Amino acid sequence: MYIKPKSYKEICKEFGGEIKNNVCVVDGYPMDYAYYLFNNKPQSQKHISMNPDEFLSLVPIGPGVISRSKVKELKSKIKNNIPLDPLFLDIDYESGVVLDHEGRHRAIACKELNICKKVPVIIFYRNKDYGYIDITRVKTPISLRPRTTYL
């Protein structure tokens, strides 16, 4: 099924952001138009904004995983309004458990800067056996549950 790609402005609005100097700013987070993310399984996506602590609580961080130099680089980009990809979570549709993710360093940078009260997160709904789920056909909301093991 073909789904027409959404414009940067439409996506920005879905996250509760606004365009400032051609950059979508979501509560202090300069979000890039990550075409490759927004057009990957669009029928399986939900766009939300969440507190960086909430995001980090869903993705346990193992020892030695966080690169302080990467966090420092991201903090500089956020301060200078350089667009960054949104964060994402792959969620098991049936259990709500996080299967995969990207964005721990960006969430930590936002938290430490205390500029972004919320970060844009793409949620991809999957089923362990059947791949991505078309959420346009889902009637019941799914509660997110943290992973209990490191990724």
Draw up the topology in text.
Elements: H1 8-14, E1 18-20, E2 23-26, E3 29-31, H2 35-38, E4 45-50, H3 52-58, H4 68-79, E5 87-92, E6 98-102, H5 104-113, E7 119-127, E8 131-132
Parallel strand pairs: 5-7
Antiparallel strand pairs: 1-2, 2-3, 4-7, 5-6, 7-8
Helix pairs in contact: 3-5, 4-5
Description of the structure:
The chain is of the alpha+beta class and 151 residues long. It has a single domain, classed as Conserved hypothetical protein from pyrococcus furiosus pfu- 392566-001, ParB domain (Alpha-Beta Complex). 26% of the residues lie in helices and 25% in strands. The strands form two sheets. Strands 4, 5, 6, 7 and 8 form a five-stranded mixed β-sheet that branches. A three-stranded antiparallel β-sheet has the order 1-2-3, covered by helices on one side. A hairpin with a 2-residue loop joins strand 2 and strand 3.
Keywords:
alpha+beta, Conserved hypothetical protein from pyrococcus furiosus pfu- 392566-001, ParB domain, 5 helices, 5-stranded mixed beta sheet, 3-stranded antiparallel beta sheet, 151 residues, globular
3D shape:
globular
The CATH topology comes to: Conserved hypothetical protein from pyrococcus furiosus pfu- 392566-001, ParB domain
- CATH architecture annotation: Alpha-Beta Complex
Assign the structural class, choosing from mainly alpha, mainly beta, alpha/beta, alpha+beta, or little secondary structure: alpha+beta
Provide the helix percentage.
25-40%
Q: Please tally the β strands and state the result.
A: 8
Number of helices: 5
Order of helices and strands: HEEEHEHHEEHEE
Distance between the termini: 32 Å
In the CATH scheme, the class would be Alpha Beta
> CATH homologous superfamily, by name?
Conserved hypothetical protein from pyrococcus furiosus pfu- 392566-001, ParB domain
Strand-residue proportion? 25-35%
Low-confidence stretches: none
The Rg value, from CA coordinates, equals: 15 Å
Largest sheet: 5 strands, mixed
User: Taking all residues together, what is the mean pLDDT?
Assistant: 85
Instruction: List the domain count as a whole number.
Output: 1
